[in-house]
Amino acid sequence: MEHSFEKLLGRLAEGDVRFILVGGLAVALHGYVRLTEDVC
């Protein structure tokens, strides 16, 4: 994950801001590996 995005998530959490992550980033943060098999 990009450092600036990690910093943003940290600041949101520190500020008690309610937010959700969706899509591929949410999947990765939950520990699942998803590779695109159709791209060579």
| Multimerization state | single chain
| Range of helix content | 40-55%
Radius of gyration: 13 Å
Shape: elongated
Question: How does the helix and strand content classify structurally?
Answer: mainly alpha
The number of distinct structural domains comes to 1
Number of strands: 0
Strand content: under 5%
The end-to-end span amounts to 22 Å
Count of helical stretches: 2
Question: What characteristics describe this protein?
Answer:
40 residues; elongated; mainly alpha
Could you characterize the architecture of this molecule?
The chain has 40 residues and is mainly alpha-helical. It has 2 helices and no strands. It has one domain. It has helices spanning 3-14, 24-29. The model has no long low-confidence stretch (mean pLDDT 84).
Write the SSE topology.
Layout: H1 3-14, H2 24-29
Task: Give the structure's gist in a few sentences.
With 40 residues, the protein is mainly alpha-helical. The chain is built from 2 helices and no strands.
